[in-house]
Amino acid sequence: MPQIFELQVNGQSHRVEAEGERSLLSVLRDNLDLTGTKYGCGEGQCGACTVLLDGVPTRSCLTPIGGVGRRKVATVEGLAQNGRLHPLQEAFLKVGAMQCSYCTSGMLMSAFALLQKKPQPAEDEIVRSMNGNICRCGTYQRIIAAIKLGAQALREAGR
Amino acid sequence: MNHFDPLPFALEPERYELADDPMFSTGVDRREFFKTLGCGLVVLFLLDSATAQQETGGGGRRGGRGGGARPTEISAWIHIGADGTVSVFTGKAEVGQNARTSLTQAVAEELPVPPDQIKLIMADTKLVPFDMGTFGSQTTPNMFPQLRRVGAAAREALLDLAAAHFQVERASLKLAEGAIIRPDTGAKITFAELTKGQNLVKSVTDAAPLHPATDWKIAGTSRAKIGGPDYVTGRHQYASDIKRPGMLHGKILRPVAYNATLTSVDTRAAAALPGVTVVHEGDFVGVAAPDSLQAARALDALVAEWQTSPQPSSQDLYAYLKEHVTNGGGGRGGGQNAGSVTEGLALAEIKQVATYNIAYIAHAPLEPRAAVAEWTGDQLTVWTGTQRPFGIRGDLAQALGVPEERVRVIVPDTGSGYGGKHAGSKYAGDYTGDPAVEAARLARAAGRPVRVVWTREEEFTWSYFRPAGVIDIASGITKEGRLTAWEFHNYNSGGSGLPTPYNVPHVKSQFHATAYPLKQGSYRGLAATANHFARECHMDELARLAKIDPLAFRLLNLTDPRLRAVLEAAAKTFGWGASVPRPGHGFGLAGGTEKGSYVAACAEVTADRQTGAVRVLRTVTAFECGAIVNPDQLKNQVEGAVVMGLGGALFEAMEFDKLRITNPRFSEYRVPRFADIPTQEVVLLDRRDLPSAGAGETPIVAIAPALANAIFDATGIRLRSLPLVPDGLKAPA
Ligand code: FES
Ligand code: FES
């Protein structure tokens, strides 16, 4: 049975009519047209669907919408503020940390969560916390470089 | 060729004899096309017949009305509009290889406009000229020079217009970015002003002079991926992101096993679910519903019976391939036959015989196959991620019984392919093997647009695989290490990269087609990966037997200067021979050439005989593909190929029992992750004196043998099967 859910996404409140079993991923993409969050596996293995729930990186493919509650959802669409790219986004562009870029949203969200917790992660910390995100194009080395660059830019900006 | 034809007839230059139907049936009315684009200058690139034959694989493209070979093809065109926007039309698709960026550089190099004023319209069958597909590393060697020529011809045409405008000799004019200047008065006219109100068409086959690579200003430089901001903000829409008004979500009933036939299906329960449409046409059964959860429920509600018939499992695979040769061999894909191997072996002082196995692996592009289909009356539009837009158009026309002219296929820049998104009938054997056809069938029945996105499991099961194979090598060398004999038999995996680049007087290299259990097709680098793996491991074995350094051994038997150069470059950067590996560490090296480019890799691994753990610490890859178009993107491609190659080298393998794939998930099929990645160095050799070759494929071929050789160096264990260490290091039985 469809229910009405009040979702907090990227600082905005959305009323969504959906069945509680629907995945957060499908609701974001199909009901809210936030297609930046991607499907890659549906089993929590690839990280393409990563969003933040109250700042915690979460696989939206495995998260039923009925379980989201009042937690704040952050997606890749919310990273840029007032038309200005987030330093991590800038860093991905600067380093060229992508090929097809299908993994990029999930990478950005996982990296964002990491830097919130750990503003100056060492390389092995980056590897450990990003290991759940797959890039089939194999741009891992560049993504690590971009995360370091983004971390530095954030520090310099005092954010 | 330097004349202008007035519209409207001009887009089909009549001076060329056409075999049958119009020069290109993109399904668009030419005048419509110009109405859309507005007036301006159009330059067409015509392939001459020889090139057209080559480009289209000899048979010309398949036409909706008979098709067949034709003497010429339009392969690209460019339009300079009244607002100065330069639109370039090409049938190539962007699948993560950054063709959009490098092809834009091609035009910008010749026609001086800032790259951001160039808009590439790619892989939309209604708008772009016919193209076979984006594969075989052909975009750079073919489309790159063609777009340079189109750009150059447009430049020349603009100079003609400017000369007429200023009423001066064209030689006296100077080009600036987006404008032409008359130096004596300083007067300036922009391209936009020149083309405003004009309806001009020009066609070129070669004509205009090109900037030599040594003078490149825009080509040959590192440029960021075009549209980058759209990707990092999530704005870019892949095929799976396309949403149409009233769109439904489709799912397809898949057989319970390979070779299964549907004996009965009861669709009543599924059809009774709210909002659900069920389609049952022959073997095709699919459902469409307002959301994906409801579609999944409807799929579950289908009651189907299947008859299955077992086939070889992955356990029996290699024996099966060798026992089921379907032709006598003879070197399809460039076999070799010179001298007498028997004689060569008689001359040998050291001999070696070995067999190498190559497993089936999956492309597993992170974006699975996806399509959105929409019917407007009898017109069908399909958005899909494919490397063969025109091929899919043909498949759609045939499967749905509509003329190609009424089918439009649009390929949004795609979540990668690696050779895995050719799809369609060629590999499927039927038309149900592609989401484009599936979505179109469902959309027709439902009367609404339908999106089909394959699940990861479907992607792992119902796409096609890199062919498995068995390779037998028998070889001989003198005590000094000179090759005397080389016999190489490849069963099933394919003929690419089959001939040995080393000097050997008595040689026989053959490919043998066999029966095979899984659907197989192209994969980045094709069989060059398998053939290089076997050859470069075997070369290492010979070097060890002769107690010669593996690099020295290769160079001793090698003339090709380009291959020597990459081997030496990789070795130098790696420090090959400068130190011995620490205990538990090993160094390995391999090299090769395919599709006009050259690669060599050195690797350092640690391999622990006790725990079985293998870790790749460091790789150096040297790569040469002629004149480099975009160094940073090339480096990115090389790094990516090494990572992808590392997966196939160490742990990727499809497992299957007699009925089905048993590891169709990322949790069961291990792909490289952050923790698997070595420190990667890439050395690019820029040969501005040589034409640019493609680079998406060849860099993958050297990594697997380099790793196998490094593992041997570390442990003394010679592994001859890909993947090398799916369950960690074990001494072969
Ligand atoms: S789609 Fe959610 S982790 Fe892969
Ligand atoms: S860039 Fe293609 S999957 Fe990461």
Tell me the CATH architecture of the largest domain in chain A. Roll
Helical content band of chain B? 25-40%
Largest interface: A-B, 58 and 58 residues
Estimated radius of gyration of chain B:
27 Å
CATH structural fold name of the largest domain in chain A: Ubiquitin-like (UB roll)
Q: Biggest β-sheet of chain A: count, sense, barrel?
A: 5 strands, mixed
**Could you say which overall geometry of chain B the principal axes of the C-alpha atoms support?**
globular
* % residues in beta strands of chain A: 15-25%
CATH topology of the largest domain in chain B: Aldehyde Oxidoreductase, domain 4
Estimated radius of gyration of chain A: 15 Å
Question: Please, could you describe this protein's structure?
Answer:
The complex is a heterodimer of chains A (159) and B (733). Helix content of chain A is 36%, strand content 17%. Chain A has helices at 24-31, 87-95, 104-117, 123-130, 140-157; strands at 2-9, 12-19, 50-53, 56-59, 72-74. Chain A starts with a strand and ends with a helix. Chain B folds into three domains: 13-225, Aldehyde Oxidoreductase, domain 4; 239-309 and 369-453, Aldehyde Oxidoreductase, domain 4, CATH 3.30.365; 317-361 and 465-722, 2-Layer Sandwich (Aldehyde Oxidoreductase, domain 4). Chain B is 27% helix and 23% strand. The chains are: A alpha+beta (159), B alpha+beta (733). At the A-B interface, helix 1, helix 2, helix 3, helix 4 and helix 5 of A face helix 6 and helix 18 of B. The structure holds FE2/S2 (inorganic) cluster (FES) (2 copies). One FE2/S2 (inorganic) cluster binds next to loops of chain A.
